[in-house]
Specification:
- The protein has an 8-stranded mixed beta sheet, sandwiched between helices.
- It has 388 residues and is α/β, with parallel strands linked by helices.
- Helix 12 runs antiparallel to helix 15 (351-358).
- The chain folds into 2 domains: 3-176 and 245-370, Rossmann fold, CATH 3.40.50; 181-240, Alpha-Beta Plaits.
- 31% of the residues lie in helices and 18% in strands.
- The termini are far apart.
Amino acid sequence: MPSTVFWGSPRQTVIGPEETLPAKLDLILQKLNLRERVKGETVAIKMHTGNNIITSTIHPVFVRKVVKAVKEGGGKPFVTDLNWDAAGAEERGYSSETIGCPVYPASGPEEKYFYTHKRDFKNMKEWKVAGLIQDATFLINLSHIKGHPSCGFGGAFKNIALGCMVGETRSAMHDTVHFDKYWFADKCPDEAVRKKIIDSCPVGALVVDRKDPRELHLHTEPCMQCGRCLKVAPAGSLKIDPVNFLAFQEACAISTAITLSTFAPGKVTYISLATQMTPVCDCFGFTGMSILPDAGIFGSDDIVAIDRAALDCVAKLKLIDENMTASLRKFLWPDGHPFTRMHGPMKDPYKVTEYGEALGLGSRNYELVDVLPVDENAPPSRWFISAS
């Protein structure tokens, strides 16, 4: 049986506030029965407040509506994010006065409050879940859909996977991409050739390893998998392999599973906004032009289904090439999903949903339910602005 994903289109039938995305969020909250589910619960609203001068994170109007619904249902809400983002959240509009509840650092101001979970994956043995997340009795995963240089895109999985772990764990998750060997120094002993390999990369993704000058280090984030380096490297010395790029996505699925295991069944729900989508994560701390048209707002109790639905909706949109940062625009792939066009085909954004489904977190089979369908045959809008 498919999971249900509620969806609000960014389009309107008529001009009026009742058909805007905030109004459709209200309808989605009703469909999710949020008010009925949070009575007496300590509700963590996990979102990315961003940092520095970013303006493309979720608008405070949406956050306040979620907070208001939780309060109306008798829950005790707080917004939470990484310590350095939470510390300056008010600069981006996330203050208790504007959103209606406090903003707390998930693992304390110094990231010293956490719970340790054991699980082996590549270089990882321990996963440290933020204390305020695990202490909460209900979780609302309020995520912003955008591109991401490590995994193609960031959505519901990414918001929990990185945002609910302490810095030590986040770093180890990123380092999983280096677990499987991709450079074989014995096949390229010539320093001059190594320099040619490094110089062949148009985005500077290959560098000399800081611990051993005979080794090369691949920064997977900027790597577009263009293959220029492979044309220079001696046979067998270098691999550009999906296993390295997908390790981070599998780590994200595992991290998410660990965090979700700390909540009782039915005590987690998901809301995702696909608006003001940018090429990279909100943690970059700045906002450029939107590189995709808005795809609307999604709500579900299934994390696999909501990310899959968001990706499928984005796949139908045309990448706005002229809005891309000039340095990225030069290396766009000619076809594929908009997010893989930006970041390369080995950063398949769907993979995290496959890993999540395999871990029992949900289903990629979903039904998309439009909470307020657009009537294409509606008569012309007749409206006026009242003078009083």
